[in-house]
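RETRY 2/3 - previous attempt timed out on the joint model. Re-submitting the same 610-residue input unchanged.
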Amino acid sequence: MHNGKILLVGDNPFHGVSHLSQGRARERSHEITNPEYCAGLVSLAMENGADGFMFSISETTLSILKLMSRSGKTPRLYAIAPAASDYVRLASNLGTPGLAAYLAKQVIISGNIKAMAYGVNGVMAQNPVSLMKAYIFHELYRIESAIITGVKPYCFMLHEIVTDMSLALDLKWLFKSYIDFMLTLKIKPGFETRNFPYLIDKFTKWGINLDKVALVTPFNEIGFQMSPSKTKCERTLESIPKTEVIAMSILASGHIMLSEAIDYIKSIPQISGVVVGVSKEKHAHDFKILKDALATL
Amino acid sequence: MGKMGLLHASILNSIPSVRVTAMYDKSPIMKRFSDKALNNIYVTDNFNKFTRSKYNAVFVTTPIPTHFSIVMEIYSQGITNNIFVEKTLTSGDQQSTALCQEIAAACGVNMVGYMCRFAVTYGKARALLKEQAIGNPISFSAYTYSSDFTNAKGKLVPVRGGVTRDLGSHVIDLSLWYFGDLDIEQATHGSSAMANDESGTRFRVSGSDGLTGEFDISWCKAGYRLPEFGLVITGAKGVITVNADLVKLEKSGGGSITWHRHDLNDNVPFLLGASEYYREDAHFVRAILENSRADPDFTTAAKVDQLIDRVER
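RETRY 2/3 succeeded.
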């Protein structure tokens, strides 16, 4: 790491996600869904300066982690849960109660005692906090089961769908209990959001200590997915200098050239790091250029 | 309290002039947990309790087959005159026609959730058609694909309303928005991937001035992690290709321009799911506050149900 700025490999391409074009994602899906190929890309990015791996917890990414772990290359982990697209599809097919039943079944199959204990307590006492803890234990157990080195994630993040819905519905209890719980586990609590100023505004009103959390949110030259606006996001960033804010979508899903993205990142030195997805070897080699750019901030 | 209910509730609560005050879900389990989780919102599994209050507006995001009875109940009990219904309006033409007659007596705002109209790419394509960028449209090809049931093996039977209504309705609505009324020429249904259900539908239509079109709808298509709605429109002077990601204009004389979402001022005050959901909800709220008509309203959306009925006949 240089100057404390962190450079992370993102996993969106491994899930067939492209915010530029789903057609493009389908075209590259054959090789990019092969865990061995993906693990190779992450390893190559690490060799070129990446400090860690930010990933949604799914069967695909757990397979990648398993392969990397076997070759002794476990990166610093930023885990995101839930893997929203998987759960949205399940909810479409099974309904929300069906999804809950599916999750409960997965916890039981895993045999994870902590998750089961919190799950039973959550159901019996109708306690949402216990259910949240059961879910987090379940996801952490999945990660631990994939990694033979026993390394736990540096940061565990709530997916943007959960974060942003919970913000809008004023679920202050969820944020507070989640942060406290993660801190007791000695894992940094994090939030992925596409509504960065809205989150900061709510957290400030609720008295949540922003220095203890990590945030990942879009920052790019063209303001893509920067709600409500690029200017508002940049001003908000300036107002929280002690918070770990990682910029995502710096290439706006490939709409922006790497050199332009770097110029933009240099204009917002308050960011703590960036996360960039890889789908080709060339992208992994580009991490060296990104690393050098971050070193100058 | 399904995913669409939570999505709309969240977006609405983010709009400064709006506050979500009550939710109804028939599941007692969902009610109990939601009641504890949502501190500022009254949650009930008893429809009679829900209907005891008056609301400025109600969003109906239940499964399609329940829309008609719920909306009729809301009108008959005078709970509100301002109703938003997730697509499709009802399960069929007959019910939709009955609802349209009902709203003639009410004087509120009504709207159906065809969110594609509020996506910047589809809006850009409509603007290009309006300005005759490809001249008069001659033909179009519309598709909707998803992988929702690609791996279904008989046990999973969708209860949502069938592939044409549940998945195809978006692109049917877009086609009606772009081209006006359409007549069915020929329809074929795909072989069943699941018991008692269809895996896909294809049909041909005709419109005014000799326009012809074809639809291909499937929820068993591999590689579509998200549903994709798209059209390829051929005109006398060129071709427009549009989906949720981009619009491409190809002129007959050569040359093309592509606009991605990124190029079309896609930002909204609160981004959840996709920007079109916010614009859709904000449009409905604005129509209530300004006492104006929302679009697509029940009458417009009923045309989608009419066309689907003719496809399924």
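The CA atoms of residues 119 and 276 of chain B lie 5 Å apart. Closing ticket.
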